[in-house]
């Protein structure tokens, strides 16, 4: 079995058919048009013979001329129409594969994405799907029309002389054996060429995602080398595939020459013995000549299929990554909805089976309403608490509840609809400021947007920007400052009217005025919503209703700033060093 067959258990052509099936009517129409176009071409010599006959016998040639003109026009028109229908169908197959893949990638589990290179996944959607285009038209149609013509020609040959057909088939079978050895090599080389395109996509994504750091580190030559190496590897493998494809094509050509010579020799001997007459031999040789085109079509279809098969294998690999079940979007909490309570009971968690545990039995309870700060040394597992609440990952053991109900029992979309999440690096997506604010609640009205813009102190920024809320913020929000990005992320989360707000405070500082303003905003929000914050600032922890101190994957103390400073040495140390530095 080849790479495409092994893991899914079903051959690649079946997978191809699942993409092609919705367009089978159009594909058959295109193939039928191609056959009819071919037939009109074959009729031309007959009409031409008629015309010459008419001239020779002094008959009017108008009819034959009209018929010839009609055939020429029909041939061109049907050919163009057939070509268009086939190409359009192939594009629809590509579209179908791209839709399936992009929907699937959106549903991928975060843990699955952790183990992949986004650039490689992108290459699968953009580059691999493109290869399905040729495989649809060249392989399926080529195999269909070429196969039919081949069969018809073989039947005719059998009728003319079965012995010579046997001779021809023996030669063709020999060539088939050679092709059988070449074809897997085309598949392997194509797969490696596409893998190299994926590696290049991953390297590009890595470099463009950190372009400033690459430039500042003077790392351009090394990054350039990595990119060039991936491009060269793809070139090497594509050239290897081209070499084997050329060998396959020429093997078919050579086989036909050998068949021609063998038929001539064997046929000549048969004519000499009187087994067949010379007319039969000439007719048979003509058929051998006619056999050339369909055989080359079929060989081209098989070689083209190998490239498509390699692409299909890569697409299927992506579709086998673990994904969340498809879900319909859930409504956001109604205005004034009750805040949520959260509890962890003896939660043990690791990011992958081959990685160490991060949470070693985390237990805490957060009642509805109010603000709870999570503090602890870097790497203690605070952000991981948020990832588990959002169900980006599932715990290995123990239980996490929201409103007293296990997260496993929640519909994923409803769970996430109840939560607003501000990540530590506050991602801002390319697009306008408004797009970014409305990301989590596209239905929010102008008044709601204006209100969050005001509470997060984005109003002065919006006034300054040339197009206000419609100003484009650049790839990953590069046109905004770090503090502005954080405020955009908070505004976006607030616009969802969350029943639970998860705020992973940025370690970088906001300026004093904005920090105070945001502190007031969060304090306001905490009056009506449950707020969990991974705190890096003293100002945040001092206003928290409770503080959960985490260390090395465990909760070591829970209390208020005042009690913890007195009772927990680690907290006292953190408060004296880290927080004081940040909160000064
Ligand atoms: N996606 C991931 N895959 C594997 N390990 C991870 C992943 N995310 C985090 N970790 C590891 O889990 C541990 C806890 O990370 P976490 O982000 O929860 O810490 P934290 O307490 O929030 O730290 P900080 O205060 O520095 O943000 C770290 O050792 C980190 O290396």
From TrEMBL:
It is a multi-pass membrane protein. It is found in: Cell membrane. The keyword Nucleotide-binding applies. The chain crosses the membrane at residues 25-48, 60-86, 140-157, 163-183, 244-266, 272-293. GO terms for molecular function: ATP binding. The keyword Repressor does not apply. SUPFAM superfamilies: ABC transporter transmembrane region, P-loop containing nucleoside triphosphate hydrolases. Residues 342-577 form the ABC transporter domain. It comes from the Bacteria. Residues 28-307 form the ABC transmembrane type-1 domain. Pfam families: ABC_membrane (PF00664), ABC_tran (PF00005). InterPro entries: AAA+_ATPase, ABC1_TM_dom, ABC1_TM_sf, ABC_transporter-like_ATP-bd, ABC_transporter-like_CS, P-loop_NTPase, Type_1_exporter. Keywords: ATP-binding, Membrane, Nucleotide-binding, Transmembrane, Transmembrane helix. Coiled coil: none annotated. This is ABC transporter ATP-binding protein.
